[in-house]
Amino acid sequence: VTGPEAPEVVGVLREILAQATGREELRATSDEAPLFGAGVGLDSLTGVMLLREVHRRFGVDVAAEDLNLDALATLGTLAAFIEAHAR
Amino acid sequence: MMIKCVIWDLDNTLLSGVYLESGAQSPPPADPGMLGVLHELRGRGIIHAIATRNPPEAAQHAAQASGLEFAAAECGWGRKSDAVHRIIADLGLAPDAVAFVDDDLYERAEVSLAVPQALVLSPEDMADAVGWAEFSPAVVTAEARRRGEMYAERRRRQEEARAFAGTRDEFLRYSGTKVTIAPAAAADAPRLHELSVRTHQFNSTGETVAEAALRTLIGSPAHQVTTVRLSDRFGDDGLVGGCVVEPGERAWTVTLLMMSCRAMGRGVIEALLAWLVRSAAREGAAALVVPCLVSPRNVPLRLALAASGFRAPDAATPDAATPDAATPDADAPGWRVARFSRALSGPPPGLPGWVTTPGEP
């Protein structure tokens, strides 16, 4: 079984992010923009919603496999993590 | 297991009659016996919700007839167990912290089967159950007594937040959010104890701390116990979080960090972490350390730590031998504690304008 293509994953992640935060403009988030801190401003509430959707859609439990949640640095790193761990 | 929420059927349970069979001019009044139970439990900090096969007006009528704000109301013709599941998810409760009261034997059987952890009672049982241990918390704090109202306030806040065009911080400012971080007083011990029992998503240890132990810590010169209070124009949530710190010369260690999940998404945990970083840096410490139980339950806390620049050096994957995620249990063996830390060199993080810190120079 091959993992989903990277651009496709990032596209889905943008959609999830916009839904989790209720901010339509995040559909245009660059795959290199930091998710934590100013800008996207991912917090524990929106972060949990993002992780839950990622688990549901890709079957990857990021929190269980990444102690420091480094995968959440950017949409690009999250997509790469999903690709590497999708079964 | 303590019951945190009672989910009520309306027709012939909370109301003495059937809503749709009475004319709109004379809907049935609240059942006097159940009304007494409702208010008695509310006084003990137990919240109430409605699951009814009626239009939403019936829930509004029940609120008026009982003089009580319900934390959630599910009105519709679907299965009662689905309504119970939605209420559990909406209020962030564990299924075994919920009681369901219905006069209909079939409905009770359906919910018992689909939500086996819930306590399912007939109205007659409920009248008696008021005396049971499950409904009798040892300590009832001021926050507990206002819990039902706070969930209703939360619902109004969430509705406005959904309609609000702007970032989270803009909404927090618009809502008149006020976060107050202050040293704990002995009088805060009961509420801090309650937080240690009730918080899971934002709890670094997963351990209950007795009231007496908290009083000792509050009076101890070797510890700093800090409280966080939260309010905005939707309502006052009172004391929503706290932490215990052992300030060392090189590093400050946060031995307990906890926050009510009601405060989630409102900038509270970020404010507390930023304040801790600033305080430790000001006193000349080189690092702030948060030993944190790694469990599926407190992922929100790990997210907050990551967002605030904390990292655990032993970044191996969380224990692969962890129990099935479907039955997360902080007490289960196999969970390990990771030491999250943050270096204090460099400019300290800023505190948003809505954070008040009495005592900070």
Structural overview:
The complex is a heterodimer of chains A (87) and B (361). Chain A has 87 residues and is mainly alpha-helical. Chain A has 4 helices and no strands. Chain A has helices at residues 6-21, 44-58, 62-65, 75-85. In chain A, helix 1 packs across helix 2 and helix 1 (6-21) packs across helix 4 (75-85). The longest helix of chain A has 16 residues, at 6-21. The model of chain A has no long low-confidence stretch (mean pLDDT 89). Chain B is of the alpha/beta class and 361 residues long. In chain B, strand 2 (47-52), helix 3 and strand 3 (72-75) form a beta-alpha-beta unit. In chain B, helix 10 crosses helix 11 (211-219). Chain B is elongated, with a radius of gyration of 22 Å.
Write down the overall geometry of chain B.
elongated
Number of helices of chain A: 4
Form type of chain A: globular
Structural class of chain B: alpha/beta
Low-confidence stretches of chain B: 315-334
Task: Figure out the total of helices of chain B.
Answer: 13
What is the quaternary state of this protein?
A: heterodimer
- Mean pLDDT, all residues of chain B: 90
Measured distance between first and last alpha carbons of chain A:
7 Å
Helix content of chain A: 40-55%
Number of strands of chain B: 12
Biggest pleated sheet of chain A: none
